[in-house]
Amino acid sequence: MTKAESELFDSIISAPFGAMGIRTAQGVLSELVYLPPRFAEKAAPDALNQQIHQQLRAYFGDPHFRFSLPLQPRGSEFQNRVWQAIAAIPCGRVLTYGEVARQIRSAPRAVGQACGANWYPLVIPCHRVTAAGGLGGFAHHDDESGFHLGVKRWLLAHEGLTQYGA
């Protein structure tokens, strides 16, 4: 990790799959980013970042943990409808892109695009949305052996869904 890469984030927390980069603005969380293991921890500079670190650690220890973080409003009206549907998926369950699309009267591909545009992964658990025939993509990545799908597999296994491999 270069110093310039580290500077992109207010803080960085280690995660079982690598790390999470945290960005905040004006007293709210503005973005969470999945980072590969080469990123070192970066201390929380303030109470909000400390709260975010605390809640992320709680989730890594207990997949049933429920986040309660102040989020910066993001996304289009459509994206927010998708994100609300995703946020309602309980831990240990998945829905397919098609099932979410039917709930909100949209198309599976549009749901997938909104999933990939999620600013708050884990808080809005887009990893709980899969393809009809398997894992599907994740965070706009679909390389079967890539970092992001590895994160999705870990998250699903963490929540008790081992059929996707971990």
What does this structure look like?
There is one protein chain. By secondary structure, the protein is an alpha+beta fold. The protein has 2 domains: 3-61, no CATH class; 77-164, Winged helix-like DNA-binding domain superfamily/Winged helix DNA-binding domain (Arc Repressor Mutant, subunit A), CATH 1.10.10.10. The chain has 6 helices and 5 strands. The chain has helices at residues 3-6, 47-61, 77-87, 97-104, 108-116, 147-158; strands spanning 11-15, 18-25, 28-35, 95-96, 129-130. The strands form 2 sheets. The protein has a 3-stranded antiparallel sheet with strand order 1-2-3, covered by helices on one side. The protein has a two-stranded parallel sheet with strand order 4-5. Helix 3 crosses helix 4 and helix 4 crosses helix 5. The chain is globular and about 40 Å long. The two termini are 25 Å apart.
Distance between the termini: 25 Å
SSE order, one letter for each helix or strand: HEEEHHEHHEH
Strand count, sense and closure of the main sheet?
Answer: 3 strands, antiparallel
- Structural class assignment: alpha+beta
pLDDT < 50 runs, ≥5 residues: none
| Strand line-up across the major sheet | 1-2-3
CATH superfamily membership of the largest domain, which one? Winged helix-like DNA-binding domain superfamily/Winged helix DNA-binding domain
Task: Describe the structure concisely.
The protein is an alpha+beta fold and 166 residues long. The protein folds into two domains: 59 residues, no CATH class; 88 residues, Arc Repressor Mutant, subunit A (Orthogonal Bundle). It is built from six helices and five strands.
